[in-house]
Every structure is written in C-alpha cells, then in structure tokens.
UniProtKB/TrEMBL annotation:
Subunit and interaction comment: Homodimer or homotetramer.
Protein purpose: Catalyzes the irreversible transfer of a propylamine group from the amino donor S-adenosylmethioninamine (decarboxy-AdoMet) to putrescine (1,4-diaminobutane) to yield spermidine.
InterPro entries in the record: MFS_trans_sf, PABS, PABS_CS, SAM-dependent_MTases_sf, Spermi_synthase
Location(s) in or outside the cell: Cell membrane
Membrane topology of the entry: Multi-pass membrane protein
Active site: 385
GO cellular component labels: plasma membrane
Family named by the database record: Belongs to the spermidine/spermine synthase family.
Keyword Lyase: no
Transmembrane stretches, start-end: 24-52, 58-77, 89-112, 118-142, 154-177, 183-203, 215-235
EC numbers on record: 2.5.1.16
Name the UniProt record assigns to this protein: Polyamine aminopropyltransferase
Organism: Streptomyces pratensis (strain ATCC 33331 / IAF-45CD)
C-alpha cells in the first residue's frame, strides 16, 4: 500500500535524481541489504555449528526463528511508513550493529559463559525482525521515486533481493570466510550495510529529511560504523582473550583451516591437549588407554596391511607400528593440517612416536567415504578413528553404506574396528553404530573399556574437565566372517592398561546395556 501521507510525484518534494535513477539506486541498495542479510544468517549457522555442534539442528533453529521474526518485522514496519526515509536509515543502522556484532557476542558468550544457545536464538530473532522490516519501507520508497503498479514494484524488489541473497550466499564461504574469518567478516558486512542505507537516504531522499533527522541519521550511522571499525581493529586481541578463556593460558598452536579450528595446548612437561572445533580430542594424560583399546583387539590375526580412517594425530598409527610385521599403513585424514601438525609439532610428534616419519606410513588428504568408493586396495585391518557420530559432519561415516564400502576394502579374513561412543551414557548411539556395521554386511563383536577418558569426552563445547568426561568408551569389532573370541594377538606388544581380563570385562559391560531391535543409520535416514 502506498503511504497516503507521502504524495507521489508532484505532491512530494522533488527528488534530486531522475525517477529511473532513483529507482535503480533503491534496487541497488535492496541488492546490498539482501546480501548482507544472508551473510548474517549464514554466519549464525556456521558459528553455531562450530560452537554448539549438530549443524542440522542449528540451521533449523536459525532459519525457522529468523523467518518467523521477519513476519513480525514486516508488521512492525507499518508504523514507520509515514517517515519511510528516516525509518529506513535508522533500521539499517540497527541491523548493521546487531548483525555485525552478532558473531563477536556469540563467541564471547561461548568463551566466558560456556553457553551460546540463548544468544543464538536472540540474534536470530532480532536480525529476522530487522530484515523483515526492510521490504515494506523499501516498497514505500521505490513508489516514492517512480510510481508504478504494486505488482511491478514487488517483482522488482524481490528480484533484486533474491539476486543479492545469491551474491551474499556465495561471498560468505568463498570470499569473507577465507579472507577475513567469521568475526571480521561479520563486522565488515555490518559496516557495508550501514553505509549503503545511509548513502541511499542522504542522496536520494535528502529533501524528505529535516535538518534534525539528517543529523540524527549521520550521527547514528557514524557511531555504528565507528564501533564496527574499532571492533575489527581489536578483533585479534579479542580472539586471543577468548581463546585463553576456552583453552587456558597454555595455547601453543591455534590455526583455522578451511575445515576446522585446530588448537594445541600444553607447554613444558604439562599435559598436551588437542582440540578440533572447540572439542577436546586428545589428552596426553590418558589417550593411550583409548588407542590401545581401539587398535590392538583388531590386530589379532593377519595385519600386514592396515588402513586408518581419520587418526591424523598419528596416535592410532603409533599403536599399529608397534607390530614389527606390519608392512604398510595408510592414513586417510580429511584435513592435511592435522597430519602436518602431528608431524612437525615437537610435543605432538613425540606423543605419537614420530609415526609419520616411519617409511611404512602413507598419508592421504581425502574424505574417507569418497576415497573408499574409488580405491581398489584391500587391507587386513581397518581402524575407524573418526569423530563422534553425533557430530553432523561425521554422520555419513557411521552409516550402513559407509560400512558396506569398508567391507569391500577388507581381505576375506580382514577386520574392522570402530569407536562408537560411551555405551553407558549413550547406549542408543552405541547400538545404532553396531546395527549400522551389521547392515553393512559385517559380523560384529561389541566391547568397551572402563575408566575416565578425559581426552575423549563427548558432547558439545569445551568438554575437557573430568566432571563431564565419560566413564567408559565403546567399540565395535567386525569382520566379513564371524569374529570369534575377543583377544590380543600372540605377538602383541606389552600394553599399559589393556589385557585379556579387561577385554572380557568390557565385553560383559556392553552386553548389560544392549538394546535390541535398534535400526541402522543410513544416508537417507540418519539416526544419530
């Protein structure tokens, strides 16, 4: 509906540009605002997936809350149509401040409060309301500069909006993230957003503004841009402070690759901890207990050729190489930065026994699923040392289809071992993994190991302390033929914590929490 208090053409103050030029400029700002809005949306989804985990859930929360909030914003914008120009200028300032600072505040909430879910919902709601209020105001402005039927104006606005969303959606992963990172990228987007809104109002609609309104817009948008610029200058200091809050004062390596954030902590003779995307993956205090239980039961029998899926830290390879009759080890690690760190960092390479310097070891930077689909190699042992299945990116690597590929890579007497999470605290996940392995065509023998496993605590965010670490860890040993008795190879090296007694106890412990009839997880029906 056209604002009745702002007459068109002759009844309104004459614009300083021709109608066609004004229409083009309004649509150009629609394009820019749409691109910025989608960047805010994608930034919330990406950061929430990193901080909280389970990207499907986080994307659903952000998108559903934001779309709902856009409807609210559209209704609230009706009150601003009588002063559409100044309303739009102030609206873009608010959106620039909220959207531009959202990543910073979300990460601060995670670092110092340990909880970012409420901040995520709050920003999704606020940004959605502000984005939803844009279109009604822009509709009023475009009809202010060039009178046309409502259908044509809507078509033009949404065309510019959708094309801008496309550009913003592509710019986020291919330009902003690689060049600026999440925090600086969001701040930069906010500054562009504020500048575009202010420029449109001061250039095309300046005659609609009284001196007081013009000063208000310049001051508000100037303050917003100054705040965002100051934050971008200080963002490195903020990241260092937040990293200390999350990981402690002994951060020795912190690097953001195209796939994840890798942080290695610990100096001197203290414990060495490896975090991937904020989750503790390895602690030198007890990692040997996990890797002994993962590797050695699968090495009973032929083990000349071994395939390790994941395990870029080199710790599973260290255990495999303790068998002198192993002829070759292939490590498939998606992120080459992990294997590079495991090879070059003095403390981590010392922990893994300099496994990657052994000529028997070959590392391949590839997705395990894709690599298995194309490989024709066969192995005596396959060790699946992958992130937990409840992390969305890992779900396909715990599917029945994946285990079918692994079965095809095994020799007739070959064996697979999978780490499947703590059976006592997450029995459904554990038995879903076991059912998925069986659905892939393999016979299974589930087992577990007891005791606190600090370095492999499950769950979201910063789970590094003993209070939340699981008391056990579960594994599934599988083969193309019946597995037989669980045990160790006669040529097994001396182990620190694992023996026949521990394996027998672990086998009995998982049977006590057995869940029958659990369906497998598949690519089209993930169940984790």
């Amino acid at each position: 509906m056209i604002d009745q208090q702002t007459p068109l053409r002759g009844g309104a103050p004459r614009l300083p540009v021709r109608p066609r030029t004004g229409r083009f400029l309004v649509l150009a700002v629609v394009f820019v605002c749409a691109a910025c809005g989608l960047v805010y949306e994608l930034e919330l989804v990406a950061l929430a997936s990193y901080l909280i985990g389970d990207s499907v859930t986080q994307a659903s929360v952000v998108l559903s809350v934001m779309v709902f909030a856009m409807g609210i914003g559209s209704l609230l914008a009706k009150r601003l149509r009588t002063r559409a120009a100044v309303g739009f200028g102030l609206l873009e300032a608010a959106l620039a401040l909220v959207g531009g600072s959202s990543a910073l505040i979300l990460y601060a909430s995670f670092a110092w409060l340990g909880e970012s879910r409420y901040a995520l919902v709050g920003f999704s709601l606020a940004i959605g309301i502000l984005i939803g209020a844009e279109i009604p105001l822009l509709m009023t402005l475009i009809q202010r500069v060039d009178r046309q039927d409502a259908g044509g104006a809507v078509a033009d606005l949404f065309a510019a909006d959708y094309v801008g969303a496309l550009v913003g959606g592509l710019a986020f992963p291919f330009l902003l993230l690689p060049m600026m990172g999440q925090l600086t990228g969001a701040l930069f987007t906010g500054a562009v957003n504020a500048a575009a809104g202010l420029a449109l109002v001061l250039w095309v609609f300046r005659r609609d503004l009284n001196p007081r309104s013009r000063l208000l817009l310049v001051v508000v948008n100037g303050v917003v841009i100054a705040l965002l610029a100051t934050a971008s200058v200080l963002v490195d200091d903020f990241e260092r402070a937040a990293r200390r809050a999350v990981y402690g004062d002994e951060v020795r390596v912190a690097v953001r690759t195209g796939l994840q954030e890798i942080v290695l902590t610990g100096r001197g003779s203290g414990a060495l901890d490896l975090y991937l995307d904020g989750r503790l993956r390895v602690s030198s205090r007890d990692e040997y207990r996990f890797h002994e239980a993962l590797v050695h039961p699968a090495m009973k029998g032929a083990h000349r050729r071994v395939l390790i899926l994941g395990g870029g830290d080199g710790l599973a390879a260290r255990e495999v190489l303790r068998y002198p009759d192993v002829a070759s080890v292939v490590v498939i690690e998606l992120d080459p930065a992990v294997t590079r760190l495991a090879r070059t960092d003095p403390a981590l390479s010392r922990l893994n026994g300099r496994a990657f310097e052994d000529p028997r070891v070959t590392t391949v930077a590839a997705d395990a699923f894709t690599w298995l689909r194309t490989s024709r190699d066969r192995f005596d042992v396959v060790v699946s040392d992958l992130p937990d299945p409840e992390i969305t990116a890992s779900t396909k690597l715990y599917s029945a289809e994946f285990y079918g590929l692994v079965a095809g890579a095994l020799e007739p007497d070959g064996r697979l071992v999978v780490h499947a999470g703590p059976p006592s605290s997450r029995p459904t996940t554990f038995w879903t993994v076991e059912a998925s392995v069986r659905a892939g065509g393999l016979a299974t023998r589930p087992y577990g190991v007891g005791g606190r496993l600090i370095g492999f605590a499950a769950g979201p965010d910063r789970v590094a302390g003993s209070a939340e670490a699981p008391w056990d860890r579960g594994f599934v040993l599988a083969a193309r033929k019946p597995v037989g008795n669980l045990g160790l190879d006669p040529g097994a090296p001396a182990l620190r914590t694992l023996g026949e007694r521990e394996l027998t106890a672990g086998l009995s412990a998982v049977e006590k929490v057995r869940q029958r009839g659990v369906p497998p997880s598949t690519l089209v029906h993930p169940r984790y």
